[in-house]
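User: Please predict the structure of the protein below. I'd like the answer in C-alpha cell form so I can feed it into my own downstream comparison script.

Assistant: Understood. Taking the following sequence of 333 residues as input:
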Amino acid sequence: MKKDEIVKIAEETILSIQKIDLLQLDISDYDKEYFTYLLSHIHYCFDIYIDTIIRLLPCDDEDASGYFVDFGGGEGFLSFFLKRLGLNVIYCDLCSSSVRAVNLLKKEIGYGPDFILEGSSSELLSFCKSNNMRPKYLIATDLIEHVYDLNVLFSDFYALNPAISMIFTTGSVKSNILKTKKLRKMMVVEDRDRYIPVRRQFIQENYPGMASSEIDKLAKLTRGMIFADMITFVDIYIKTNMLPDNDMDKYNTCDPETGNWSERILSKKQYRKILDNYHFQVDFENGYYNIHRNNPALSILIKMVNFFIRNFRLSGSLLAPFIFLTVRNQKSD
C-alpha cells in the first residue's frame, strides 16, 4: 500500500471522526476527557499511525491480508483508520469504559473494527485460538511501558503467531536524559504518595504481627510488585530472614493492585534481552515532535528538530520524545 494512499485515507478518517459529537456519547467523564485530548492532537496521532502502518505493511497489496490487532487501542482511532484502509481489524483493550466507547463510536461512524475485545494478551490469545485466527500484524501505541510482565505479553504474542510483525511506540525513552529525569521524578513522587501507603497497608493486613519498622522497610523494597508477588517476597524474608533478590530499577514503580506501571523506563538492551527469549528481533527508530502548531514559526523550528532526530540516529535519540520498536521473528527474513 502506497504512502500517498494511506495519507489520503488518514485525512478521510479524521474527517469522519470529527463529524461525530463525541462528547454527546453516553460515555464516562474519563473517556470524554481522553477524546478531547485526542481530538486536539488528532493530526499528530495520525502521523504516528501512518508511520506504524507503513513500517508493517508490505508494498504489495496482495500481502496485506490477515488480521491487524490494535492492542491497548484506547478510544479506537487507530482501529477506525485500519478499517478504513480495508484491513481486517481486532481491537483489544483492558479498560471496559474504552471498549464501550469504541462500540458506541462504531455505531455512530458507520464502520469500525471487525472484533472489539475487552481484556489483556491472554484474552486476545484465547479469542484467536477459539476462532482459529492467526493475526499477522499488531500495533500498540503508548502501552508497552505500562504492561506488568513483558515476558507474559510476548509469550502470548508468540503463541498468537510466531511470524507476527509488531510495532510499539513508547515515550519512556531512556536515551532522552531530560525526559528520563522528568519521568523518574514523577515516579518517585507517585510511589511515595500513592503506592507505598497501599503496599504498607497490604503488608500490615496480611502480616499483623510484624513490627512497624519491618513493614516500612518491606513496603519500600516491594516497589514494582503486585500483591501476589509481594506475598512471595515477604514470605521468603520471614522464612530466611534474608531479602530475596530484587533487580528492580530504583525508580520504576507500578500500581500493586493492577500491575500498571507508571512509566517503566527500559534500555534498548533490556528490550532486546526480553524479546530474544521469544525469537523476536527488534529495530529501534527515533520518534518526533508534533509539527501541527498554531504558531508557524514554532512549526518550522520543530520541523528542524525532527529533521535532526530522524537523520542523526544516535545523537537524535537524545532529543526524541518517543521511540518506535519494530518487532519481527528472527527467522522471518
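That's the full C-alpha cell string. The CA atoms of residues 9 and 199 lie 48 Å apart.
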